[in-house]
Amino acid sequence: MWVVLSIVVALLILAVLVLRVNPVFGRKASREKLRTYESSPNFRAGKFVNQTTTEMAMGLKAMGSMLRDSIKKNPDRVPKSPLPMETVDVTGLSQGSASTAPAPAKVTWFGHSALLVEIDGKTLLLDPMFGKSPHPFPAIGGKRYSKDVPIRVEDLPPIDAVLLSHDHYDHLDYDSIRKIKEQVRQFLVPLGVGSHLERWGVDPNLIQEHDWWDEFEYEGLRLACTPARHFSGRSVNDRNATLWCSWVIEGREHKIYFSGDGGYGPHFREIGEKYGPFDLTCMECGQYDERWSAIHMMPEETVQAHLDVRGQVLIPIHWAAFTLAFHAWTEPVERVSLAARKHGVTLATPKMGEAVAVGGDEYPNTPWWRS
């Protein structure tokens, strides 16, 4: 018995050391920062909270059904062949940011929720997850569908700002941040996320933390950190220790909405009433399940959320990179396409790396995932 007990204790000590030493887990906010968060209406009893009650169905019945679905084989959960993607024109990107006559606004999707937004001569990078696995231990985690992304991280142009929605691994990637941090002028993040960045070597002077409904000017753009219905955490004891959010990006002529992750809720209508209409919305659509629909929208809710924020053109994101749920990998885009037609919503379905002009007359809408 003593031998078994000694092994258990040794494993626990090892686990604690791994959590503390491995930088991929990030770092909790200092006590000084935590005291500043207490003034936030979204911070209660040491944790951040949603506007509405948000629970996942994790009873015995749900856990049993998830175990069954994990064991059951579904070959359609991953693509059977490499995904098509466009090669990003790196020269055009770097010229667009420095040009005295800014190019028209456009958005380039890199897969999952990673986006490059070029607007009014500024270059913004949203949730830059370029890693091969959304897992702290890539060797045992799920792999990216494609070996590469449409652009090498090293080839990205100077970034005026990185906008993060929350600290989950499929949105905040340690290796990606380490590679891009020297070419980023500012990191704009929800409350608490800055502590992760600081541990990874980002200059604290380059980090701005924001609460929901914060509005501010940045390099001529009007930005707003807006609510989402989700949760956060990178380790075993930091659940909801940082805030999650969506983002409003407003330039001189165009407005873009980025949903981040989250379930459907009344916040979309609030955002639409306050900041809409939007020329383009980039809305979560993927990695959902009825058992956790409170934190990840179903595709039909994605379309309704787009309507709630008063969007004109919808780009579905959070799909085509990783398998983080039980549905077929193409199901999100097929269902959102059907719902968009039903409601008369203009849907843009670019290949990864294909730029979408904001406020244009035509949008990519070929069903490339079927080929």
Characterize the structure shown.
A seven-stranded mixed beta sheet has the order 8-7-6-5-4-3-16, with helices on one face. Strands 9-10-11-12-13-14-15 form a seven-stranded mixed beta sheet, covered by helices on one side. The protein has a single domain (75-370), classed as Metallo-beta-lactamase, Chain A (4-Layer Sandwich). It contains nine helices and 16 strands. The chain is 25% helix and 18% strand. The chain is α/β, with parallel strands linked by helices and 371 residues long. Strand 13, helix 8 (299-308) and strand 14 (311-317) form a beta-alpha-beta unit. The longest helix has 20 residues, at 2-21. The chain has helices at 2-21, 31-37, 60-71, 90-98, 174-180, 194-199, 267-275, 299-308, 331-343; strands at 43-44, 47-48, 106-109, 115-119, 122-126, 161-163, 187-190, 207-210, 214-218, 221-226, 246-250, 255-258, 278-284, 311-317, 346-347, 355-357.
